[in-house]
UniProtKB/TrEMBL annotation:
Domain of life: Eukaryota
Short name of any one Pfam family annotated for the protein: RGS
SUPFAM superfamilies registered for this protein in UniProt: Regulator of G-protein signaling, RGS
Protein name, UniProt field: RGS domain-containing protein
Protein source organism: Aphanomyces invadans
Gene3D superfamilies registered for this protein in UniProt: Regulator of G-protein Signalling 4, domain 2 (1.10.167.10)
Domain RGS: 82-194
Length: 214
């Protein structure tokens, strides 16, 4: 912002000097404004070159992100809970059941386990990914147990499972994304505001962002 303002004042100064002369008040005002913005621009660059200044600027521009992170309200923090926090998952699972989202959570976890198996057991002749995928589809989607998925999503998955060209590991990608977004907005944010969710977040992560070094 300061750089653009400085450039504008320089152009204005040149134009006024040409039309009004170097000693005209308006020409001098434009010159003074250009110098003022140049000083601010240089000060900002010096500030950003300093490590503490960089952190302060980062905090200023990403304040909302850090505020949400401190409260555990980022989508990636829900992902971490689901895949790497057994104690947190147990609490969240119970909360999902209370909110009538237990099936959504079960589907998301089943798909995640399936994708892991597709990666870890790619060379295992006893593992049949397409058959596993069909079982997940029958258990959760064909019976419409997962109600937040659309007909279009279910039809695409059904068509992919019938095709030998589609990679089974990716077949549930869209459905899992929809379910995750539902869990995040309809359950996880409420979970964080609940007594058990608040205690979990405080115990697992603390409540304050890291401090800036002095």
């Amino acid at each position: 912002m300061y750089k653009e303002a400085m450039a504008f004042c320089r152009v204005t100064e040149v134009a006024r000097r040409k039309e009004l002369g170097a000693e005209h008040t308006l020409t001098k005002d434009a010159h003074d404004d250009a110098v003022r913005f140049a000083c601010k621009w240089e000060s900002l660059q010096m500030f950003l070159e300093d490590s503490v200044g960089q952190q302060l600027e980062d905090r200023r521009t990403n304040a909302a992100y850090y505020a949400d992170a401190a409260l555990g309200r980022l989508p990636e923090q829900l992902t971490a809970l689901l895949v790497s926090d057994l104690a947190g998952l147990a609490l969240f699972s119970s909360f999902c059941e209370q909110r009538m989202h237990g099936t959504n959570l079960a589907f998301w976890l089943a798909v995640e386990r399936f994708k892991t198996s597709c990666h870890d057991r790619a060379n295992d002749p006893t593992f049949h990914p397409r058959a596993e995928a069909k079982d997940i589809f029958k258990a959760f989607l064909k019976t419409q147990q997962v109600k937040c998925t659309t007909v279009a999503i279910r039809n695409r998955i059904r068509a992919s499972l019938r095709s030998d060209r589609a990679d089974p590991a990716d077949v549930f990608e869209s459905a899992q994304t929809v379910v995750f977004n539902t869990l995040y907005s309809s359950v996880y944010l409420l979970f964080l505001d609940s007594p058990e969710g608040s205690r979990w977040h405080t115990d697992a992560h603390g409540a304050t962002p890291p401090s800036i070094p002095s």
